[in-house]
Design goal:
The chain is mainly beta and 132 residues long. A five-stranded antiparallel beta sheet has the order 6-5-4-7-8. Strands 2-1-3 form a three-stranded antiparallel beta sheet. 6% of the residues lie in helices and 39% in strands. It has one domain. The protein contains one helix and eight strands; from the N terminus they run αββββββββ.
Length: 132
Amino acid sequence: MKPMPVIDPGTQPYWDALKDNRLTLKHCKACNTPHFYPRELCPLCYSDDLDWIDAAGGGVIYSYTVAHRAAGPAFAEDVPYTIAIIELDEGPRLMSRIVNPDAGLRIGVRVQVQFEAAAEGLVLPVFEIVTG
C-alpha cells in the first residue's frame, strides 16, 4: 500500500478542492503572494492573514527525474515514472508526477494539472505535457 498524506485541519481545504478537480494555493493577503505547500504563516512575510485561491493549473517543468528504481515496494509496479518540479503560472513550485513523459519531456515545457483518483477517496494532482 502506498503511503498516504497526513491531512490536518490546515490542509483539509486543499485536499477537499482536489476532490472537486480544483488545485488551490494558500494566498497571503498581506504581501499578495500565493505559496505552496499549505501552511499557517506566509513563508515570505510571516503574516497569518491568508486565504485560498484557485490556481489555473498550468505551468512549466522546472526540473525532473525519471525513477527507474522504485522508491519502495509500494511503487514497484509504477517504474519507470517521472517526477517533476512544476513552476505554476502563479509562481509557486510543487512536486508531482508527469503522466505523459513521452510527449516531449524537457525543462521548460508547458504542463497542465490533471486529477488522479488514489486510494481511500484521495485525489492527487498530476501533470500532463501540453501538446500541439
